[in-house]
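Project outcomes to date are best conveyed with an example. Our students and postdoctoral researchers have been running inverse folding experiments weekly, and each run begins with a structure described purely in tokens. The record below, which covers 383 residues, was selected by the lab manager from last quarter's runs and is presented without edits.
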């Protein structure tokens, strides 16, 4: 073979090579693991320094003698950094996958060495295997669009505010209960009058410090309630306009008896709105409601549901399953539960309601995607 042919073959091989990059993300420092498929190169850099990241990628290409236009793939574990880095890399033309941390295989020894360098190297080796065709190696997180991710904030913020409201109410009642006192309502117009009339066991007025603390806590409670009211009005306004597909799906869900405002918003924005399910198994798996049998040799048992999906959706699905039995008693799903589980004990009913939650999620998915109304279900009349 001539030198010219050897040079051309070398160039073609260089152009066909892929640069693999794995990131171990932290708050202050990022650990990078580069590989061309055989050798590894490790670098550390300050977190979120994008110009430095581009420079390290170019240096890695030069180190491995890879063409500047060669394919670059990378991965990092899902976590606090969210999806902004994925969108940035996608804008640079770099293929990226976000990996579910719980799906990464680990050494099962009692004690194992763990450092950011070791974790980055392991991710890099697994990335090579993943792009080599071993697709079942780990679970890849689906990245929502910027608009879909932004639509989730309203409902999540409302949930957080309601929890905060409960905290403030419990703290006010607890502070007064320490003195043997109790208020009947936290209404704005009545609470202050009640507080002024309260007396200790010996007839004295409330201590100045305690009263001031209760009033400050009450002011924070009022602020939270005002924000909750504003968000509820924003929900109503969005439903009236119905400008997006997700809002129309929310309105469609609310036509079913047993599905209210809170559940419909959560189901659509967190579950049905932007995810593309292929079959009923994927719906149940993402909610963590699939069974996990253990069958090894003569040892066969059921370990319960996987709980590997969205805890928010799983909790809500079980809650709505009870609501479905109450408001949709003539539906096929409710009759199936009554026939198989209702006559059993508490444990049997708990098992049955999880099965109802799984089937209900599948029915709601079919209802939104294909317009198939759950058999026997009642629908509210269109206004």
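After processing, the design step wrote out the following sequence:
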């Amino acid at each position: 073979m001539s030198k010219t042919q050897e040079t051309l073959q070398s160039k073609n091989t260089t152009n066909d090579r892929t640069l693999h990059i794995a990131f171990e993300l932290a708050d202050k420092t990022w650990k990078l693991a580069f590989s061309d498929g055989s050798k590894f190169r490790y670098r550390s850099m300050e977190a979120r320094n994008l110009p430095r990241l581009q420079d390290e990628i170019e240096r890695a290409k030069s180190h491995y003698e890879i063409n500047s236009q060669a394919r670059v793939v990378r991965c990092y574990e899902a976590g606090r950094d969210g999806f902004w880095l994925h969108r940035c890399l996608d804008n640079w033309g770099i293929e990226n996958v976000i990996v579910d941390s719980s799906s990464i295989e680990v050494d099962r020894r009692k004690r194992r060495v763990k450092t950011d360098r070791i974790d980055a190297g392991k991710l890099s080796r697994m990335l090579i295997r993943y792009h080599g065709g071993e697709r079942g190696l780990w679970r890849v997180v689906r990245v929502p669009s910027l608009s879909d991710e932004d639509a989730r904030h309203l409902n999540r913020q409302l949930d957080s505010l309601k929890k905060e409201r409960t905290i403030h109410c419990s703290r006010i009642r607890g502070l007064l209960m320490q003195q043997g006192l109790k208020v009947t309502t936290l209404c704005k117009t009545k609470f202050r009058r009640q507080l002024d009339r309260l007396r200790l066991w010996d007839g004295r007025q409330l201590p100045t410090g305690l009263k001031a603390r209760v009033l400050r806590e009450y002011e924070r409670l009022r602020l939270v309630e005002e924000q909750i009211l504003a968000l509820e009005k924003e929900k109503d306004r969005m439903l009236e306009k119905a400008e997006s597909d997700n809002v129309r799906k929310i309105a469609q869900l609310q036509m079913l008896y047993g599905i209210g405002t809170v559940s419909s918003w959560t189901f659509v924005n967190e579950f049905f709105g932007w995810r593309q399910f292929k079959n009923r198994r994927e719906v149940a798996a993402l909610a963590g409601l699939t069974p996990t049998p253990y069958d090894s040799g003569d040892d066969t048992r059921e370990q319960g549901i996987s709980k590997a999906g969205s805890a928010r959706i799983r909790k809500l699905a079980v809650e709505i399953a009870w609501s479905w039995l109450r408001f949709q008693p003539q539906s096929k799903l409710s009759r199936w539960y009554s026939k198989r589980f209702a006559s059993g004990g508490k444990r049997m009913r708990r098992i049955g309601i999880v099965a109802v939650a799984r089937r209900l999620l599948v029915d709601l998915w079919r209802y939104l995607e294909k317009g198939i109304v759950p058999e026997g279900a009642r629908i509210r009349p269109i206004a």
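The longest strand covers residues 18-24. The first helix runs from residue 3 to 16. The training component of this project remains on track.
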